[in-house]
Design goal:
The protein has 154 residues and is mostly helical. The protein contains 4 helices and 4 strands; from the N terminus they run E-E-H-H-H-E-E-H.
């Protein structure tokens, strides 16, 4: 289900001969975007949240092409949970002054860190809603009435 494409033009993840999974990507967003696969959505979430965490820690962000999909719903959930715990630990004791420090992520111009934290919450909610929508499309297409077992934890 994680690599099922709702439409032929949907972005997804692909397994290379070496076993590594990489996402579809274009330099520009498509004019008429198709809903991406759950694999692509979970990869995207792992990518941007890892970058946000790196920025918070003062580390360099990863190149998009260096972030791979873990290969299964179970592994994607485990990685997302790992990032979530690291994120919680990183923001838990930030002072009011630190929350106002300028950060140029995800925007090109610096804004207070609290904006980035709010953006992470918004982006996470959006991605989870997208995953749920694709899971519902998959369930409806295959005649299931409940969410698919392979992505219940997503």
């Amino acid at each position: 289900m994680c690599v099922w494409r709702p439409q032929p033009a949907s972005w997804t993840v692909h397994r290379a001969p070496d076993g590594r999974w990489s996402p579809d990507w274009a330099d520009e967003d498509p004019r008429e975007p198709a809903p991406p696969s759950i694999g692509w959505l979970t990869w995207h979430l792992i990518w941007w949240w890892s970058d946000a965490l790196a920025v918070l820690r003062g580390a360099p962000v990863a190149e998009r092409s260096d972030v791979l999909w873990p290969g299964s719903a179970h592994s994607a959930v485990a990685e997302i949970r790992r990032i979530a715990q690291a994120w919680d630990e990183a923001i838990e004791h930030l002072s009011a002054r630190e929350l106002q420090a300028p950060v140029a992520f995800p925007w090109p111009e610096p804004r207070p860190l609290i904006y980035t934290i709010a953006w992470v919450n918004l982006e996470l909610m959006k991605n989870v809603a997208e995953i749920g929508t694709v899971a519902n499309l998959f369930a409806n297409r295959s005649g299931q009435t409940a969410g698919p077992a392979g992505c219940r934890d997503l």
